[in-house]
Each structure stands twice: as structure tokens, then as C-alpha cells.
Amino acid sequence: MPQVMDADRMSRALTRIAHEILERNRGLDEIALVGIRTRGVPIAKRLARSLKEINGDDVPTGALDITLYRDDLMRLPVGPQPVVRRTEIPFSIDDRKILLVDDVLYTGRTIRAALDALIDFGRPRAIQLVVMVDRGHRELPIRADFVGKNLPTSARQSVQVRLQEIDGADEVVIEGEP
Amino acid sequence: MTAIPGDRLIADITGTAPATLRSRHLLGIDGLDAGEIQLILDTAEAMKEIGTRSVKKVPTLRGRTVVNLFFEPSTRTRTSFEVAEKRLSADTLSIATAMSSVTKGESLLDTVRNIEAMAPDMIVIRHASSGAPHLLARMCRSTIVNAGDGMHEHPTQALLDAFTIRAHKKRLAGLKIAIVGDLLHSRVLRSNLLLLKTMGAEVWTCGPATLIPAGLERLGPRITTSIDEAVEGADVVMMLRIQQERMHGHFFPSVREYFSLFGLTSERLRRAAGDVIVMHPGPMNRGVEIDSEVADGASSVILEQVSNGVAIRMAVLYLLAGRDTAGNEG
């Protein structure tokens, strides 16, 4: 399976995104990061570290589980149900700019669910989307504000973002025939 | 790096628990294995967080109809199920038999078939006859959840008890758990014994000889008539209610004598472990099985049990709803 990003490129992409976030938002006063479980969470934590290194400020960071908001939850014909995990947003999102973080942007349905979930927590001033990989094939009108890498794929392929914290190594791989 | 609390727990979840229940009904703890119990407890951890939000609602069971059919009086359990259903966005209605056609002589099966004709997805049932939910599970299309059947089982109570114990002790295996009171009439006891045995806890049961059912030892607990022996070094003391409404005979001479021999007082509790927690499934008879000083004391987690009940019932409803869609076998 071809590797499309290695640890070094992923790290540089995140540093670039951190700079772009600062540029776009002019400071970090009202910013908070919310990672979508599972792999959005470590990416959000890494972004928080990068932002702190550049700017010196701590950015509140949370974790969002979108399982209970999925649109396919009760439609799956067979197979085990997704495990529900804790959502942990230990700060008020009211009037903050929320940077929603995920590993791969594909159909947009996960992000739709995440937007619904976030809005149950309050009324953020704005929500911006950060993804490590945008692989196209959107089924909903959703786009990312900050992208690590745009990756043209076919619908038959699968894109895996692997992270040190979960998988033991950093890389992005693409599997299957184009 | 800010550690997000709960991450370790998540590793535990993905590591060991299966992602689904085998049965599409919850009729009892009997039939659940350790992995399934752990799955329910872990799912409840996630559900508990929803109760801390300002908007305490998720859209998961939108469009599902749940009927709460209570043939016995209940405040806590029925309210708890209703709150759990509403937090998951299910459409819910509760039928209490005092206001239903049951008082006109309709049989259980007829009542339920009529309700089924309105196509609910799940029926939560409490009934004075042991086995009533099992009968419905055989005869009906809906998913059946047992909310207490006679003197048989009360599975969601045992699950919320285990959840509460685990929250304080971080484990169930190896704990000494004393269960004291009316052992004969208690479905809470039976479900707890099954669950705690499956999860590897050491259970001591204690009550007057007249309230110890024959064959209790087959469910695995140590049995004693001395509360001091049961409470000695216990990590958890669980008091059971004296069920006057089920007592058709004289099981002990007087309430005062019962309290003096089996009531949990602060002096007796001193024999337990330093970090003992005191539990009661409710409703409490203060001054009968438990002294007010203990019920309201620092070791008491009785109201926590009630809050945890909602999270456990949300977890059960969520897991069964998914199970229902996943196929109709079993």
C-alpha cells in the first residue's frame, strides 16, 4: 500500500496549519480545538502544542464523540454497533471560534454529525474545519478551512491516517486500486 | 500535552469488550457474559456525560417508540427509564396499570398485543409475576426490557449498582460485597448475585433465617445471619429493603427487633473497610434496614445510584436498539 505522507511531512503540514490558523484568526484569544474521536483527538492536541510553541498561549482542547449523532446508526443492516465513547469539552464553547479537527474528510457526514453535536453544547461564534487529508467525494455541502493534504482518490480506495499515539507510527497510506 | 481524562478507559473499551449484545432483549443478568456487562458499563460512561450538558439530549433514538408498561408501583425505575428514553430522543409513553384496562380484567398478553398493534419498537415492563418479560419476549415482536419481574430479576438495577461500585473502586473483581436484608423477596439481590459472580466479586449475604431462600448458595454467595460478620472488612455494603408488600406471613417479630439485629448503623459500619460505600436500591425504610445517620452519611452513594440509573438505562436502550436493527434472530 503506497505511503502518501511520512511522519516528517505530516509534522510540517501541521506546523503550516498552525501558522495559517494564527494568520486567519489574528491571535488565539477566542479559539478552542475540538478533535473528533478517534484520530482527530491526537491531531487536535498536536495542533495545540504547535500553537503554543508559536504563540505561547494555551488553547483549550476537547474531544467529541459523534456516534450518537450518526445518520446511519439505526440503518446498518448487520454488524456490530459503534462503541460510544466519552465526549469531553471541559470549557464553554459559547462565543468561541471552534476549530473542529478530524483525520480524513470524505463524504462530509461525520462533520455534519459533529456540527450537530457541537451545537448542543452552545453557540460558538464560528466553527472552522481542520483535516489532515481531504480525499474528495463529498455527499454534503461541507468544505475544510485548513487541509494538510488534498488527495485525489477513487471511491474504491481507502485512506488511513496513522498516528504515533494510537497506531505507533505517523503516516498516511492509501489502500486499494484506483 | 493535556491528558484528556478517560483516554485510558477508552483503551480498555476497545481492547476487551465486544461491540454488541448477543440478545435483542434484556430479560435478566442471567445470559449476559462478562464482556457484555463490561460493554454496558463502558457505554454508560459515555452516556453519563450527556447528563452533565446544558442540552441533555442526543438524537440517537429519534423516531423510535418506547412503551413503559408498569404493572407494579414504581417511581424511581419508571422515571429513570423515561428520562433515559427522552435523553435519547425516543418517543415514549408510560402506562401504569391503575389507569389501564388491566383493572377491567384484560390479560397481560392481550394488553401487550394491543399495544403492539400500535407498533412500538421497545417495551419496558415491570410485572409482579416472575417470568412475565420472558413470556412477552417469546410472544411479541418488540424488544423487551425487564424493569423488574416478581421475585426474579431486576437487571438494570444490578447494572447501575455495578456501575456505581466501579466508579468508586475502579474494579469489581476481588471486592468484598455485603448484601444485607430481605434475601427472600429481592429480585435486586438475584440480579446482583449473578452479575457480581460473573465479574468475580466476593459476595456475603446476610438476613434473618426466615428470609433466606432455599438454594441461595447455588448462586455463589457466602451466607450468614450475623451482620457483623458480613460487614467485617467489606468494600461495599448493600442494604435491601424489607418488602412488607410481598410478605404474606410473619418473618420476624417486630420492626424494632429487625433493626436491632440487622439494621445498618454507624457502629456496625465501622467494621467495614475505611473507604466502604453504602448502597440501597430504594425506596428506603429509614430505621428499619438502615439508620438515617448512615443513609445520609459520607459513605452513602444512594443518590449517586439514582443518577447512574439514567446512564445505565440509556446504554441498555442504545445497545438494544442497534441490536434490533442488526437482525432479528435470538
Strand/helix succession of chain B = HHEHEHEHEHEHEEHEHHEHH
**Greatest contact pair?**
A-B, 32 and 40 residues
Taking strands numbered 1, 2, ... along the chain, how are they ordered across the largest sheet of chain A? Answer: 3-2-4-5-6
Measured between the Cα atoms of the first and last residue of chain A, the distance is: 12 Å
Proportion in β-strands of chain B: 5-15%
| CATH level 4 superfamily of the largest domain in chain B | Aspartate/ornithine carbamoyltransferase
Structural class of chain A: alpha/beta
Model description:
The complex is a heterodimer of chains A (178) and B (330). The relative contact order of chain A is 0.20. Chain A contains four helices and eight strands. The model of chain A has no long low-confidence stretch (mean pLDDT 93). Chain A has a single domain, classed as Rossmann fold (3-Layer(aba) Sandwich). Chain A has 178 residues and is α/β, with parallel strands linked by helices. Chain A is globular, with a radius of gyration of 16 Å. In chain A, strand 4 (97-105), helix 3 (109-119) and strand 5 form a beta-alpha-beta unit. Chain B is α/β, with parallel strands linked by helices and 330 residues long. Chain B folds into two domains: 7-153 and 307-324, Rossmann fold (3-Layer(aba) Sandwich), CATH 3.40.50; 155-301, Rossmann fold. Helix content of chain B is 39%, strand content 14%. Chain B has helices at residues 7-16, 34-50, 76-87, 108-116, 132-139, 155-169, 187-198, 227-231, 255-262, 266-269, 292-295, 302-325, and strands at 65-70, 91-96, 122-127, 143-149, 176-180, 202-206, 222-224, 236-239, 277-279. Chain B has a five-stranded parallel β-sheet with strand order 7-6-5-8-9. At the A-B interface, helix 2 and strand 3 of A face helix 1, helix 2 and helix 12 of B.
